[in-house]
Amino acid sequence: MHQLELSRAGLGEGIALTGASYGFKWKGRHVMSAIQSVGYGTFEGTDIWGTSLGQFQASDLALALGTSLYSYKNWELGATVKWISGTYETYQSNAAATDLVAMYAATGKPTVAIIAKNLGTQITTFSGTREPLPFNLLLAVGNKLQYAPFRWTMVFDQLQRPYLGYDDPNLVETDPVTGEQTSTKPSYLNLAMRHVSGSLEFLPTQRMHFMVGYSFRRQYEMALPSRRTSGGFTVGTGLYFSKFSLHYANELRSVAGRMNTVSLSVNI
Length: 268
What we know:
Layout: E1 3-12, E2 15-26, E3 29-46, E4 52-72, E5 75-88, E6 91-104, E7 111-124, E8 136-144, E9 150-156, E10 172-174, E11 181-183, H1 188-193, E12 196-205, E13 208-215, H2 216-222, E14 233-240, E15 244-254, E16 257-267
Antiparallel strand pairs: 1-2, 1-16, 2-3, 3-4, 4-5, 5-6, 6-7, 7-8, 8-9, 9-12, 10-11, 12-13, 13-14, 14-15, 15-16
């Protein structure tokens, strides 16, 4: 079977994500090619005195090719190679990276995947300064309940960085008399939960799914001390037909706006 998938997401203010992927089987192996683009909109360029120099754009582009490499009993190993390019005004940088996945899937047991993302290096730099790629080590666990129409997934990411804390101005207290400032450290539970995200999928029929996802780290980092938000939560739905499927998701990234994503998958 050959499968084509197209997706489009908008975050407002001219920021848009576009993706396309094509998957098929070749000599018993799963093969996938993909292209992803992120456009950040149009900006007004000025010199140091504020004189307009015209408009410019900024965008990222990634080309990927992935396949399954090796299977042993209930384990399967796969890899994806990627070419990544960033263009911001007249500055451009290119990088080469790979993603590695080891997945365990057995009947009646949860599926487990270990993922190492963005192993690679910059080929060309923006202005002579070499920067590391955003490496991420993840562990994902999920399963479909045997006697109920639910599927759950838990993801533990940034495992290579045990400490995800930062200097949070909301945790700084000022003494009203002396003016001395003291910083409160986040709890160990708070730091541990920053690695955790999860989702729950409701499958009332084979042709319709409802999904809700939650990221503690995104909710915590996007929160405002003056108001409550639904940052970190994602809701979505999927419709499945014999020849194609359609998905929609809505996510509050921050109070600046929501991200709406629509994807279409066609079986060729």
